[in-house]
Design goal:
Blueprint: H1 2-16, E1 19-24, E2 35-43, E3 50-57, E4 60-67, E5 73-79, E6 85-96, E7 105-117, H2 126-129
Antiparallel strand pairs: 1-2, 2-5, 3-4, 3-6, 6-7
């Protein structure tokens, strides 16, 4: 049993290592309006594939069931910003229950993504919308 735990621990840890990520946010972000962020994941290793990866970005998450060795993948993550202004995202958390869902391991991947959240759009007053004065 101890040997099984050691082998599963090794493969579980190896599953989360050697991943690179690029985070791309839309050009226009508004407070309390969901937007889709694009997350490009690529492995640095060409020997083993990655399985059951769950990426956590702010309060949202997205699952990548399988990442083939040597191949990149793109996933979309819905994100919502609560206040306007400048900010940056410097890391993304990733977790995985691989290989046997006995332990859930997690780590973070470094990204450098600056963003600007504009003031929220306001509806046009009905008098101006109708062309009246």
């Amino acid at each position: 049993m101890l040997g099984f735990m050691a082998v599963s621990g090794f493969f579980g840890l190896r599953n989360l290592q050697r991943l690179d990520a690029i985070l791309l946010l839309p050009d226009e972000l508004y407070p309390d309006i969901p937007a889709l962020a694009t997350l490009q994941i690529s492995p640095r290793s060409r020997t083993l594939s990655h399985y059951l990866l769950k990426f956590h970005l702010r309060s949202a998450s997205a699952v990548l069931p399988f990442l083939r060795r040597g191949k990149s993948a793109t996933i979309r993550v819905p994100v919502t910003f609560t206040s306007r202004g400048r900010g940056s995202i410097d890391h993304i958390a990733v977790s995985s229950p691989y290989p046997v869902n006995f332990f859930v391991r997690s780590t973070s991947i470094s990204v450098n993504c600056d963003y600007l959240v504009f003031p929220g759009p306001k509806p046009l007053p009905s008098a101006l919308a109708a062309g009246g004065e």
